Amino acid sequence: MYTAKKISEILKGKLSGASSNSIQHLISDSRTIVDYHQSVFFALVSERNNGHKYVNDLYKNGVRCFVVSENVKLPKDCAVIKVKNSLAALQQLAAHHRQQFSLPVIAITGSNGKTMVKEWLYSLLKNHFNICRSPKSYNSQIGVPLSVWNLNSEHTVGIFEAGISTTKEMPKLEK
Asked: What is the pTM of this model?
């Protein structure tokens, strides 16, 4: 289990507010929250959207930990971790989490068929291993870290798919 303070240390971010909030879930989409109280929201910025505009609504719904790259104003009962780049921070946290496990990982890349190959491998290996795998086709710069975050001490193998849409993305996913 991670705390806001531990996440802040891993990310070398500036922590303000509560530091002992426990975190089990990473979220980047305000519509897909499983457990508000044990989630950290990464306010991602893209060409089409800015996660910072959802921070106050998420706070009202119970989220108490945020990773942001812009200034936000929130009550002191939540943790705000300010970083340079929220997407890079998400990837860095997942890479740190991955390093906590020594299990083998199968990474599937390519132009077509990644999800099909992942599911085929899963069906072949599931009776022999406890497998953590990408849900659906989580193979993007956001999906891979969210998938890797699901690793826990009970898993014996990881199967993840990784896709790229521009140059220089694969080295980020490789970590």
From this structure: 0.92
